[in-house]
Amino acid sequence: MRARLHARAVSVLAAQGLEAEAAEHAIRADLVGDPAAIAVLESAGRAALRSGALQTAVHHLRAALDFSGERPSPALLAVLAEALLAGGRPAEAIEVGERLLANHGLAPAERAATLRLLGHAHWAAGATDRADRHLGESAALAERAGLLPAAVEVLLDQAQTSWLATGPGHSLRAVQRARELSLHVDEALRVRVGAAWSFIGLLGGDPSGLEATAAAAAEVERDLPAHLSELTSSWGALMTHGHAGKYTERLDEAARVLEVALGAAERLGAVEAIAAVALSLGDTLIRAGRLDEALGLAGRATAIGELVPFMVPFGAAGSALLAQLTGRGEESDRWCDLVEALHRPPAIALLWIHHVRGRRLLADGRAADASDRFARAEELTLAAGIGEPCVVPWARHAVAAHVAAGRLENARRVLEWLDGRATRLPCRWPRIAGHCGRAHLAEAAGDLAAAEGELEAALALHAEVDLPLERVQTLVEHGALLRRAGRPAAARAPLAEALHLAERAGAVWLAEHARAELAVAGGRRHRSLVEPDHRPGTAGRRAGRHRPLQSADRPASLGVGEHRGDPPQARLLEARGALTSRARGTGFSGAGGERGS
Known about the structure:
Number of helices: 30
Number of strands: 2
Largest sheet: 2 strands, antiparallel
Distance between the termini: 26 Å
Structural class: mainly alpha
Shape: elongated
Helix content: over 70%
């Protein structure tokens, strides 16, 4: 009797257009094999997917698949795979996609779409070679079939996925072909192609056309619900614009647009996008000296990253940098070990590890080992086709390491690379790094006056851009040079400023170096030097509420809970529970959204 009532409710509710309610009655009636029930469940799943209620979509579509028996429709399999992928289940999406691809009766458009989905899913799962192969097959099939908009879409996917894994050199070929084909597509897609072209060009060292990334992001931001597919992926227009802003030192704009993207992804429960945007925003905050906020984001990104395996090495690399800056060297080493233990880690993640390891070696006085490490970073950068030094800012420390190791030709080569890019790019950091590098070379040649002039030029550039942690390093180098030149009194002011900036940012590691140099220069920390309250949930730094800094202080928020000694895996597992509660299937509309099952 109950089953018959539920079945009757399905018919009545479906006739009134209440598909979501009808779908729940279909599930309770267990209408296996009933075409009407299957149609209602699929329709309800599609509606949930369109509104961004990803987990609800999966719930209804899986029920439709269960009711379909051994011969589900290709359309049902395709939409279920799409929902699984958007909801952060790439392995399950691959399983459904492979089942669909085994259907030899698929039309070219359906086969190309399935190959594209499999490429995306394999990328999220960390199988970048398979991803590239599937995406390449999809683009070629779509182009042969005359499906030019579909071909362009796939080529954009290929360009945006490959730059992190292998570098922009590989991405350039795909985006070039997309640009050629974009003459035959609509204006909206041409805007996206222009944004991708500009971004990949920036990564290669060409900043021309960057306004295209801003225009594409503005179009998405004007109507977020109309761009759900971009908001659920890790390479939409907002993400691209955020990356571009971060690398060109427009940090406030980058943070703003990435916060918009993160909020949208969280409302949608789009796991891949949450992880990717949180990592990029965390990197932006580090560059801006906002380490307390970056630490919180690192925990969130790491927690959810295990659902998108490709993101794991990037989360580990970011955590390695943060742990180093906040004075937790052993933990930083463990995160580095995690990345280096991977089979063929992504190029950008590995480059960050070279940067972190090299800085640590240089600070420990192991100049030759640091020089070797930075030589590997240089080799990887060139092989990947990276021409924007700000993507991973290793070059400054590389010059210092090469000079300290007596490898002056290596130092000059890196400086030449920096200078060649600094003339084309709008960012100041490559010029700052160049001045600091020439200061090292000048001091090695015994020309202390020239070295001081280079560092003063670097500090003048710092006044034009807000890169507080980089400024700390320049101030320490300036103070140390003055002290070595026999001018300890002059050295104390830049060193005291460096210590103040480092403490205020919670950059314990940098503060320790500044403090040590200040002590050698005969200075002592003034009592007015303070640091913000770094407790989670406070806004001490921004609001100006400070507390006196004690010499043994560390930022109170060092990650997820108090995990100074925990291995990275333990932090990941504990953090995941806190984050996944925010990444459920919430719809885009309505106050607070619609929870998925």
